[in-house]
């Protein structure tokens, strides 16, 4: 999902449902993610498109395997997943393979979405 804001036509960010990344705990699943542009953070856009994406996936995909991942240090992102009704599964947390060892962004936490949320 990519859109423009009415009024000034600004690009607020993006949200997507993607196949899970290879060599991760959600490889055979669908990943939901959002990335608001810095000027549009903390305005509710990510929550709106995240909720819409989860609603669409529940209605349209023949799978219960939708999840979000977030860097452990990205408290705002994983906080949003919890506000969307997703709950962390601690034993699924992992170090994201494409991220080089050392940076704080490598440890990721996993939040599956339930069909009933």
Describe the protein's architecture and organization.
This protein is of the alpha+beta class and 117 residues long. It has a single domain (13-112), classed as Gcn5-related N-acetyltransferase (GNAT) (Aminopeptidase), CATH 3.40.630. It has helices spanning 45-60, 75-83, and strands at residues 13-19, 30-36, 66-71, 94-95, 107-112. A five-stranded mixed beta sheet has the order 1-2-3-5-4, covered by helices on one side. Strand 2, helix 1 and strand 3 (66-71) form a beta-alpha-beta unit.
Give a nutshell description of this structure.
This protein has 117 residues and is of the alpha+beta class. It has helices at 45-60, 75-83; strands at 13-19, 30-36, 66-71, 94-95, 107-112.
Defining key terms:
single chain; 117 residues; alpha+beta; Aminopeptidase; 2 helices
> Main beta sheet: strand number and arrangement?
5 strands, mixed
Count helical runs: 2
Shape: globular
Q: Cα distance, first to last residue?
A: 21 Å
Mean residue pLDDT:
81
Classify the fold: give the CATH topology. Aminopeptidase
Determine Rg (CA atoms, Å): 14 Å
So what's the oligomer here?
A: single chain
Task: Report the strand count.
Answer: 5
Number of domains: 1
Residue runs with pLDDT of under 50 for 5 or more positions: none
**Helix and strand element order:** EEHEHEE
CATH homologous superfamily - what is it? Gcn5-related N-acetyltransferase (GNAT)
